[in-house]
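fyi for ur records
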Amino acid sequence: MVEVEFENIYGAPPQEIVGAYGAAVQFSPLVPGAQSLEDAAPGSLNGFAILAPPGTVERRYTLALALRALRPGTRLVVLAPKDKGGARIIGDLEKLGCDAVETARRHHRICVTSGPGDAMAVASAIEDGRPQRLDDLGLWSQPGVFSWNRIDPGSALLLEHLPALSGKGADLGCGIGVLARQVLTSPKVTDLTMIDIDRRAVDMAKRNIEDDRVRLLWADARTVKDLTGLDFVVMNPPFHEGGLENQALGQTFVQRAAAILRKGGMCWLTANRHLPYEAILKPLFKHGTMIAEADGYKIYQAQK
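which gave:
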């Protein structure tokens, strides 16, 4: 176990590896209400444990932000499963100008450094991971956000079949606003609540959609309490959690959609072909129909 007392964490580093950190300040954008690492003052933080993201650009961006925010001489512990970016952490830290010690435990690679790293390398990694406007999509996005630099094929298929909607609705797991942007082309839509658990996605959606009918929430769509009586729900529900497939996650989104729709309300859902949503749609909705299937994805229309 790494003998460090952490005041700050990013994500959920296994406590059996890094030790208890119940009172630590959370900085992960995937934890609603967490602090923003981008906003942390340089040299202001003491002791940091990071469960590193798997994506290269996102991971180096996060490490660079942490190095910038740490008080000089303060230890930084970075870890991840070996097959989910852990084997690359030592190289990332070296590219950022840090000397690091690497160990392995419980299938994780664990690196310890004290920074501060090379200022130019740190600044470059931060620049690479910043929000950027994708000219081919006409949208703002950021590395680390789901399908950050392309329209997910499941969402693209849903866009082909989504009719003009009306009334008040919700986009559960809205991402950067790909589905919402089309939903809002209908003048009959009066209100749209967009919800995502990723702060970065919500921030990008704010840039991408300027519409008085929209309410954006950084929250877990499964637990938002003040949605009821909706006319429609659109969603491309997640089915991965912590880097692992979790079919129950997407099924919970379906249950949530049924709970917040009025009687007769419509749910429009896109899903990977192998996901067994039929069984959960049947008891929750009066009618459920698969209206399209292509390229490994399927589209459902379900009426409560």
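The mean pLDDT is 93. thats all i got for now
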